[in-house]
Design goal:
Blueprint (H helix, E strand, L loop, with lengths): L7 H61 L14 H6 L10 H45 L2 H17 L8 H15 L1 H19 L3 H19 L1 H14 L7 H17 L3 E3 H9 L16 E2 L4 H7 L10 E4 L13 H8 L10 E3 H8 L7 H12 L12 H21 L4 E3 H46 L10 H7 L1
Antiparallel strand pairs: 1-5, 2-3, 3-4
Helix pairs in contact: 1-3, 1-6, 1-16, 3-5, 3-6, 5-6, 6-7, 7-16, 8-16, 9-14, 9-16, 10-15, 12-13
């Protein structure tokens, strides 16, 4: 997976889950439940994965672009990437609308996309599904001999009387933009926003309380396994394998490996571990002195939950610090690194027309080594973000980008640690790349298998067990009284 919000794993998981749940439904409720589950899961998957995105990108965005003149993100880290402010201060921004009005229009577009998708899957599909089941059941009953109809009717009445079931038991603009960005540009936001409406609609549309309980158990119980289980399993396995929770993704590893081969070729094809490490990683960041006073930087205020967790860390997470590039021009200690400083600054767009650079990038510019080569970083970040990292109207998390760079550094550290005879050559590079690819694959499959097992089999079995414990029946609640209802009609 090359991108932080890749959809392919989610699509693959949905296909597996749809098949597994349909099989479980067939075993318990026969054709009626299996068909309802197949239709509901398939349409739900399509809307869950692409519904909000299609409505946003192909309906809402063209309309908004006609009104506002451009499409833009509203996510921000306040001091480095500010696409909303970049747009509002550009020549494209409509002068007749205020910031608040533009933010509300953007939020309205996103909210409308969510509500339309949720209404379709929660309030339209279930009733149509139920009508189809009723129509097919009516057709089956009409084809039965009359004495069989009477027998079935008596049997149903007996069953229904055996046990009753019951059901037991600038701040405003910033807030608007945080909400909008979460739903529009993150998978977690997109899918959770859809899930809330989807589950609510299905519960509302259920035919009886037993069916409502099953839907609540299945849909609410599935959220963790859809959204986070795969990554958590992968992180745990990474920790067991390397002592770290993250691992360099294979696509970035390929780019880095090309760079490592280039370095080796320029040095005769082989280097000692110490030489290689010095060329690639240079000095430790703590050994680099930044000739800029701390108070000269703009410092991003950490979010409240980050402040809370920092209390329990030996060393709190470093806040993002930024300075305008032009303010460094007069600093004599930075003149020799000016070309690299400019290149580092180009790894992100200008902030409202002004070039900016982070404290970390200044350290990297002064620490001259191959891992800090701006050309390499631009290539890696471009692949990871589909070149959004330098787009002034797109938001990209700087934390994720430099988390990726840390993974690259750890990859090189592991390469040096595993080198035989203290030598780094192409054979060592190939072994490291193949090992990283193998473990990435194993960890992905393990995470996928855990999520798929719970979603396709274990959660349905649990919801069926709850129904049996509550009602004494091992059948689909949606068709409890179906033949009786048809007979009355």
């Amino acid at each position: 997976m090359t991108k932080p919000d890749a959809m392919a794993p989610i699509i693959g998981l949905e296909a597996t889950v749809t098949g597994g749940r349909t099989i479980q439904a067939q075993k318990r409720g026969g054709r009626d439940e299996a068909r309802e589950r197949l239709i509901e899961e398939t349409t739900g998957a399509v809307v869950w994965i692409a519904g909000v995105k299609v409505l946003n990108d192909h309906v809402g965005d063209p309309i908004l672009k006609k009104i506002l003149g451009a499409n833009f993100d509203v996510g921000t880290d306040k001091i480095l990437r500010t696409p909303f402010d970049n747009f509002m201060k550009s020549d494209k921004a409509p002068k007749k609308f205020s910031k608040r009005q533009v933010a509300l229009m953007k939020a309205t577009k996103v909210l409308a996309s969510v509500l339309i998708a949720d209404a379709f899957i929660g309030l339209v599909v279930p009733p149509l599904n139920q009508k189809l089941t009723k129509a097919l059941a009516k057709k089956r009953i009409e084809q039965k001999p009359s004495d069989e109809k009477i027998s079935n009717k008596e049997s149903n009445n007996k069953d229904n009387n055996s046990k009753e079931t019951s059901f037991k038991g600038a701040g405003a603009v910033s807030a608007i933009n945080v909400f909008t960005n979460a739903i529009e540009n993150t998978n977690t936001g997109k899918l959770l926003s859809t899930d809330v409406g989807l589950t609510s609609g299905r519960i509302y549309s259920a035919r009886n309380n037993d069916e409502r309980i099953e839907i609540a158990i299945r849909d609410i119980g599935s959220v963790y396994f859809y959204m986070w289980a795969q990554n958590h399993v992968g992180d745990l396995l990474n920790y067991i394998e390397t002592g770290r929770f993250s691992r360099l993704n294979p696509a970035t590893a390929n780019i880095l490996n090309e760079k490592l081969i280039e370095v080796l070729d320029s040095k005769g094809g082989e280097l000692s571990v110490d030489e290689f490490k010095k060329i690639m990683l240079g000095k430790k960041p703590s050994e680099i002195e930044v000739p800029v006073k701390n108070e000269e930087f703009e410092t991003a205020k950490p979010r409240k939950f980050a402040e809370f967790f920092n209390k329990f860390r030996k060393k709190g997470a470093e806040p993002l610090q930024v300075i305008e590039l032009d303010k460094l021009k007069s600093n004599p200690k930075l003149q020799n690194a000016w070309t690299r400083l400019e290149a580092m600054s180009n790894l992100q767009p200008n902030r409202q027309g002004v070039p900016v650079i982070t404290k970390q990038q200044i350290i990297d510019a002064l620490n001259v080594c191959e891992i800090n080569d701006p050309t390499l970083l631009d290539k890696v970040f471009g692949k990871y973000t589909n070149n959004a990292h330098r787009d002034s109207l797109k938001f990209v998390s700087n934390k994720k980008l430099y988390g990726l760079k840390t993974d690259m550094e750890n990859y090189i550290e592991d390469l040096c640690k595993n080198a035989k005879d203290g030598k780094i050559n192409k054979n060592a590079l190939n072994k490291m790349k193949n090992k990283n690819l193998t473990f990435s694959g194993i960890n992905f499959v393990a995470g996928f298998a855990v999520a798929a097992a719970f979603l396709s089999t274990l959660i349905p079995k649990f919801q069926y067990w709850v129904t049996r414990q509550r009602t004494g029946k091992d059948e689909f609640p949606g068709t409890y009284d179906l033949e009786k209802e048809i007979a009355k009609a």
